[in-house]
Amino acid sequence: MIRKGKYAIHNGSEYSFSLLEDKSIRLISNKHADLSQGFKHLDENIYIKNVSVEEVENLFKINSKAIYKGEVFPASEERRTGKVLLDTTNTELAKRMGFERTDKYMYSKSVEWDEVKIIEKRKPYILD
Length: 128
Description:
Blueprint lengths: L4 E6 L2 E7 L5 E5 L10 E4 L2 E6 L6 E11 L2 E7 L6 E5 L2 H7 L2 E2 L5 E5 L4 E9 L4
Antiparallel strand pairs: 1-2, 1-6, 2-3, 3-5, 4-5, 6-7, 6-11, 7-8, 8-10, 9-10
């Protein structure tokens, strides 16, 4: 799984989150077991729990990248195939690596998970 977006640590576990209008935090889980941690079932395989900022240990943003043949690319997971989707706007790099042009300035390539190493870059998330 390639993670991107806002995450919080609550009771030792990491959850994606959204900030609510009242400045509280909605934790989002895909684990049924989190019902025992006070989460409520929202939809198929989605559980939520609203908490105050003081109840979380850390807030951060994750931006995942993939290392493919020694180069670093933005990465996402293709829903259709489950493969890793790599993107670049660097024409020369795209040609050298066998990427296909997918937009005027964008090149993409789908690769297997064992062809890449996923790295997560984390930055603190600051509430305004």
